[in-house]
Amino acid sequence: MKKSILAILLVLAIQIPALADSYIDKQLKESKKNTKYSTMKKHTAKHDIGKKGTLNEIRDPKLITLSEIKPVDEAKYQAKIAKDNLIYESQIKKEIQKKLKTVNIQPADVDFYNVYRISERLIRANNLGYMNWRIAIRKSEDTVNAASTAANFIWVYTALYDTFYTNEDALAFVIAHEMAHHILGHSQRKMELAYRLSRLSIKSGAGYELADSVGELAAFAQKKRLLAESRKMEYMADIEGAILLTRAGYDMDKAMEALNFFNALPNVKTLNDTHPIPKKRIESMNENRQTFIDEWVNEGKNNIMNSNVLSCKKSSDRVSIVINKDPNVKKYYEPETLETKLTRIAYKSYKNGNFKDAIKYFEKLNDITENYANYLYISYANEYLYDETQNDKYLKAALENAKKANTLNAEDKYSAEQIENITTQLSSLL
After folding, report:
1. Handedness of CA 267, 273, 278, 283 (dihedral sign)
2. Do 390 and 413 touch, CB atoms closer than 8 A?
3. Which residue has the higher pLDDT, 207 or 151?
4. What pTM, to 2 d.p., does this model score?
5. How many CB atoms within 10 Å of residue 68?
6. Closest CA to 51 of 267, 265, 355
7. Alpha carbon 7 to chain centroid distance?
8. Are 312 and 31 in contact (CB under 8 A)?
9. CA dihedral in degrees (49, 237, 67, 116; nearest 10)?
10. DSSP 8-state secondary structure symbol assigned to residue 322
């Protein structure tokens, strides 16, 4: 009986035509997707990297020093830049503009000169002249990409160059990202990943050909972990590249056009991704940029002041250039240690008024090296959180950390003052 009624209803549904949407109605429904999928907003997105405190707004006994580089004399710096520009124009540009002879690619001569100038600036500002760097431009109509291979080789597709050639900061970010892969040893790590993955026989679209389901699940988990490690390396190259970029005096706001563009390209998150989706890379960059320091610009200027123009030649392969190492280099670039990075992030978080983050990172820093200054800033941060929330637990935490600071350095007047201050506040609540 039920089947008969269902069949009758189905026949009636087929025979009664549905009220069709007009073409205007269909357009209106589609218009709802315009905002979601609009590439215009992604291309032109502006990035607010959060609130920033100032020295006057937030208490700071200046017990932490992030950089001791003195600012360069601007007049002397500009004179050095002018002198270098004469060398670029009279020697380097002439050499690079010799016509290439290759069947692989015949890019405009200015491509290599622009890429040379950007790369050379990044190298000198960051003391990366410890080896010859090889930079290639490869022909591609639709592959907007760049990559790093071997120990010193970076290549840029023409599609990427043409997309960003009017935005030197964005092109510099791409090159700096690839340099960062080399600096951080990612080529070796990726080679190890590739070797380990090659030992897993991949079955097309279905997983891995192993003896049993347990082995299949284990192989899937292994690949998932290895790909996750690859994505972590990309995040690290983004941030390390941005540090290189900042030292070289490029504008990170303009450089973000590169990530905006990648975010506007069609992309979806899959299990086989070697890179994070661009949206996540943008979020990571915006979060990290809050902890960047202005002193990096001074470091970069000092490095340029104390170095000479790096010579350049066409490579033997005729599709790339070689930026020669600095024979007089006296110190080399060193990525931040975990301790240095944590100190910067904790201190900048505190100065920016991100007190919960400051507490978290100062506590992590104490796990590495216990220091009275760390406890004192944790105490200050907790006191500010009390001011915001009126929650007594923050005052108690402030007193506890001030006492720890005082225990580690009984002669420190700041921790003694903080103990007295918090004790007075607590007694007034009783």
Report:
1. positive
2. no
3. 151
4. 0.85
5. 7
6. 355
7. 61
8. no
9. -110
10. E
Q: What was the pLDDT predicted at 208?
A: 44
Q: Please check whether residue 415 is in contact with residue 402, taking contact to mean a CB–CB distance below 8 angstroms.
A: yes
Tell me: the pLDDT tens digits for 83-115? 999 999 999 988 777 655 444 555 555 578 889
C-alpha distance from residue 132 to each of 280, 324, 327 (Å): 33, 5, 10
Question: Which of 189, 192, 122 minimizes the C-alpha distance to 154?
Answer: 122
The three-state secondary structure class of 213 is helix
For residue 143, pLDDT over 90 is answered with no
pLDDT for residue 150: 76
Distances (CA, A) of 427 to 155, 332, 378, 383, 421: 66, 54, 21, 15, 10
Give Cα separations from 304 to 25, 217, 280, 326 (angstroms). 62, 53, 33, 12
CB 133 within 8 A of CB 152: yes
Confidence grade of residue 210 (pLDDT, cut at 50, 70, 90): very low
Written as six digits, the tokens of 47 are 């990035």
Strands 153-157 and 202-203: unpaired
Mean pLDDT of the residues in the chain: 85
Whole-angstrom Cα Rg for the chain:
28
Q: Which two tokens stand for residue 32?
A: 């709802």
Contact criterion met (CB below 8 Å) for 47 and 254: no
DSSP conformational letter for 269: -
Q: How many CB atoms lie within 10 A of CB 400?
A: 14
Higher pLDDT: 161 or 49? It is 161
CA–CA gap between residue 32 and residue 39 (Å, rounded): 14
**312 DSSP β-pair partners:** 323
- What gap in Å lies between CA 255 and CA 382, rounded to an integer? 36
